[in-house]
Amino acid sequence: MKKNISLTLLFLLLFLVFMYLTLTNKLNGFDKNIYEFITKKPSIFLDNYFKVLTNLGNFIVIIIIMIIFLIILDKQNGIKLAIVLLSSQILNRVLKEIIKRPRPNYYHLIKEKGFSFPSGHSMAAMALYGFLIYIVISKIKNKYLKTIFIILLVYIILTIGISRIYLGVHYPSDVLCGYLLSLTIIIGILTLFDKYMKKTNYSGGVYGKTKKK
Are 148 and 84 in contact, with CB atoms under 8 Å apart? Predict the structure, then answer.
């Protein structure tokens, strides 16, 4: 419990620090260097690749996976996932309207509306696929299979973030702060669930389903 609280506060602090650096234009050099590195060798293949992969962070895809969890796979974790995703989306919308950071002046390969900070796709990607990493770690016993799934999910998270930069619709700092905020939400909500389960006399922490006698 204390470890989870510490991690939640750590990621929240990191988010606040990087948000401050972003809003005070202290990350302009960082944004420029990362963007130039990612777009150093553009190609038709990369254009199409990132246009496809960025869709894994789209709202409709997120909702479909959430519904699968709620109805078919794991209702308890599906509820947690729904709360994580809803919290992520609400915070993203609120922060965008408060901060009102314009989209980058980069060449846009796709059209996007609204403000830039933090990246909604990056937040959704970390919220969904980051939560799935938690599921994999807690449910899959085979270490090789577990490793494969974790690598795949991390790859998806990173690729979605990179796609937003490559496609010219987000600054790298938008993506980084989106990741940090969703990590804060995931760990914070799981910690609250763990505390609730203990208060209601359920064993097994966050994963417990059996009531103590």
Answer: no
pLDDT digits (tens, 9 = 90+) for 115-174: 999 999 999 999 999 999 998 898 888 989 999 999 999 999 999 999 999 999 999 999
For residue 122, the tally of other CB atoms under 10 A from its CB is 29
Q: What share of the chain is helix, strand, coil (3-state, %, to 5)?
A: 75, 0, 25
Instruction: Supply the mean pLDDT for the chain.
Output: 87
Nearest to 38 by CA among 177, 172, 166, 157: 166
State the first-to-last Cα distance of the chain, in angstroms, to the nearest integer.
23
Please tell me the pTM assigned to this model: 0.86
Boundaries of every domain in the chain: 2-207
**φ, ψ at 211 (rounded to 5°):** -80, 135
Helices 120-139, 172-199: crossing angle, 10 deg rounding: 40
